[in-house]
Amino acid sequence: MPRPAQGRRVITVLEPRRVKVQGDLFHGRVPEGAVYAGRAAPGLRRSPFNNPHRVGKPCGACAGAVHTLDEALTLYSAHLDANPELVERARQELAGHDLACWCGLSGRCHVDELLRRANDATRHFSSAHQMPQTSREEATT
Ligand SMILES: [Zn+2]
Ligand SMILES: [Zn+2]
Question: What is the pTM of this model?
Fold first, then answer.
């Protein structure tokens, strides 16, 4: 196996990640240095980057439909696609920051996608020398 290209480790230290809100539902506290990315909760201001599609409870954005986690995550992606100004704002306000949500860290969460998008621009910038992967043309039909 070839060794990973040199220089890649440099940014991993600063790589923002998802963290979990501390405390309980009535006294939520965002870990220091992180930005809250969820819905309004006692002590926590609603984030403009929250997922309007909730899981397992009637969704206010979908006339009461109840989503699975998969659906809610897919719909969040679509929500960001439909609101490029929100993604732009995320890049300006969230890039480089840890993002906090109530979700357990072992499961999936809308913040994973938000982190990806918010840090997309910086990643392009810091790895400008990296060649884009060329898609192989293979006849698969
Ligand atoms: Zn919904
Ligand atoms: Zn979450």
Answer: 0.76
